[in-house]
């Protein structure tokens, strides 16, 4: 989850610090895969390290043939060690689906309704400068049709997470503080009258979880999702700045688009500014297991599963995209549809995808935040070819969502 102005184009020049990064791709899979079954995906990963200045990429695919793990580049620019399947990383806005699942489970238990107003659960929280929690529903928070201003677009918050990051990287921010930053601005539109990606929506969603259950939202995710699925490498760090081992390093240019911008090691940071919208740490294996369970309906009763996958058009923000409740449907150039979400936070860009039946999942992580062709990986994995050349199509919804994280 980053500010929406991040990375208008993939950096073409390879900076000196990453130009000498080792280009090694390793793969392990069930023998039934055969050689070259993920050749396009492997080539796409290698190309991004070689040509776009990405320090390292980690990927895992699970399908009918088994599990395929691959990496390109390095996990650490100093030690030069390769990225490993068990490495943990920050998943950013992929966290939103975890929060959404908890709210949908609470609806199934009769503890709330998607059509409840925000004011009903959080009286007085969403008010001011045209915001009115009486007119916004829980459903509108989860599908980004609430119109609530995105706090990561607030100039003060922008400063925390961009140029001011070295000074503020260890600061703790409360959910109320994040929502208050959003309330300083006019809403993007009247509730239900448009679509705008707003991290504030999921901060409010986490607050509602806590109000309804009386427990920290993180403990509800742990009890309802992580433990039932055995996601032992997935954690919610709260205000802890440390990454659990094993992990590589995370690198950032602090959202500068200059090719020669300084690269910072941002592995340690306080992710409280992302909270229920983007704080989770996980692995490619755990993300694949989660998405497989999510799309197969293992986490929700039938009615709530239908709600999860009921989409709204994303308009000009993501041309051709349709957003559900924490997940998005994307139709690829080969006419296949995948469900996915990207996620970004300092030094980490991630992607989780699945076919509608949950039988073919993939998860990828880049240990940088300035160059990541997520669309190229999705196209390669699910269509088996390079994506269409620039100018031959409209921008992919995968690319557009990555810009909004």
UniProtKB/TrEMBL annotation:
InterPro entries: AmpC-like, Beta-lactam-related, Beta-lactam/transpept-like. It holds the Pfam family Beta-lactamase. Keywords: Carboxypeptidase, Hydrolase, Protease, Signal. Its EC number is 3.4.16.4. Residues 43-348 form the Beta-lactamase-related domain. It comes from the Bacteria. It is an enzyme of class 3 (hydrolase). Residues 1-29 form the signal peptide. GO terms for molecular function: serine-type D-Ala-D-Ala carboxypeptidase activity. This is D-alanyl-D-alanine carboxypeptidase. It comes from Streptomyces olivoverticillatus.
């Amino acid at each position: 989850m980053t500010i929406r102005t991040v990375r208008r184009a993939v950096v073409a020049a390879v900076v000196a610090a990453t130009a000498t990064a080792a280009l090694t791709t390793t793969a392990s899979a069930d023998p039934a895969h055969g050689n070259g079954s993920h050749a396009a995906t492997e080539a796409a990963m290698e190309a991004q390290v070689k040509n776009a200045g990405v320090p390292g990429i980690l990927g895992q695919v699970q399908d009918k043939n088994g599990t395929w793990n691959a990496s390109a580049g390095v996990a650490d620019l100093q030690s030069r060690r390769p990225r490993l399947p068990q490495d943990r990383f920050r998943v950013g806005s992929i966290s939103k689906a975890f929060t959404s699942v908890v709210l949908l489970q609470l609806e199934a238990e009769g503890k709330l309704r998607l059509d409840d107003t925000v004011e009903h659960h959080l009286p007085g929280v969403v008010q001011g400068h045209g915001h009115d929690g009486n007119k916004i529903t829980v459903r509108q928070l989860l599908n980004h049709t609430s119109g609530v201003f995105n706090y990561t677009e607030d100039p003060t918050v922008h400063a925390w997470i961009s140029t001011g990051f070295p000074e503020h990287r260890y600061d703790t921010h409360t959910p109320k503080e994040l929502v208050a930053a959003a309330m300083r601005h006019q809403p993007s539109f009247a509730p239900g009258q448009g679509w705008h990606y707003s991290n504030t929506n999921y901060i409010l969603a986490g607050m509602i979880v806590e109000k309804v259950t009386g427990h920290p939202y993180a403990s509800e995710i742990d009890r309802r999702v992580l433990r039932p699925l055995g996601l032992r490498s997935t954690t919610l760090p709260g205000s802890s700045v440390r990454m659990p081992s094993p992990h590589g390093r995370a690198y950032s240019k602090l959202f500068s688009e200059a090719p020669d911008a300084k690269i910072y090691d941002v592995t340690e940071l306080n992710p409280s500014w992302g909270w229920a919208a983007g704080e989770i740490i996980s692995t490619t294996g755990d993300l694949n297991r989660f998405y497989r369970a999510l799309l197969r309906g293992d986490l929700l009763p039938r009615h709530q599963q239908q709600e999860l996958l009921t989409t709204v058009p994303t308009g000009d923000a993501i041309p051709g995209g349709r957003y559900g409740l924490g997940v998005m449907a994307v139709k690829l150039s080969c006419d296949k549809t995948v469900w996915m979400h990207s996620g970004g936070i300092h030094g980490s860009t991630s992607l989780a995808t699945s076919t509608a039946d949950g039988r073919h999942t993939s998860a990828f992580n880049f240990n940088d935040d300035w160059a990541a062709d997520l669309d190229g990986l999705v196209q390669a994995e699910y269509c088996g070819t390079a994506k269409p050349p620039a100018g031959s199509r409209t921008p992919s919804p995968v690319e557009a969502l990555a810009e909004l994280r």
